[in-house]
Input
Amino acid sequence: MEKLISCFKKRPDAVARLICFPWAGGGSIHYARWGNILNSAIEVLAVKLPGRESRAKEPFFENMHQIVDEVLHVLLPVLKEKPFALFGHSFGAYTSYAVADALKKLHNIEPVHIFLSGASAPYSEVRIKAPKRSDLSDDDFLKWLISIGGTPPELLANPEVLNLFLPALKADLHIVENYKCNKPVSPLLSCPITCMDGKDDIPHDLQAWKDITTGDFTIRMLDGSHFYLKDPGNERIITDDITRHLEMSEMDYL
Output
């Protein structure tokens, strides 16, 4: 499990787990830190994909099925133990949904809550018509990356670090740009879903995510652009929100 998961604070007595999926090109550390922020009732497991961090020498995954297969293979016993929630931003929102979809269809297991951030529903017109970025030249890709904000300036100014970062980002975007998903005829899930986004990000069709569940559906807009969740104030709002929802779902679960 250590190969796939970063967990800064192991909590065997936690009543619930939060499984976090990285944004495109991202690692696990940002979310693993939440293990030090959230209360002792919640254990945070941050997913670590191939081609980065301790898995830097592994080849990138090429499609969403590979991510889902590995996550289910490693985490299924853990997910059967106690209530869990999923969190994903941008690319991570799609992996969260793909994992939730497979868990329900293959094992009849679902999260107690799903938090989806910074992404249109995969079957929405907004997402289907979005321009593909993974095939851009490095120069054009870099211009687009700068335009959406959130990438540390020191990274953009360091060619060596950039050369390590760009392949992972492009590989993840290739996966999500080729991820096909039909609009559900009827909702597969029954858990609550919270969608979040930055007010200054490009518009996403968050409302379309409502089609995947019969449970409560909430949209929350926070100040900032695409990487609004990196802002310490927003991070506090998000982690407080997660804590509140998981405490509520724990009572429902009991």
About this structure: The chain has one domain: 5-253. The mean pLDDT is 92.
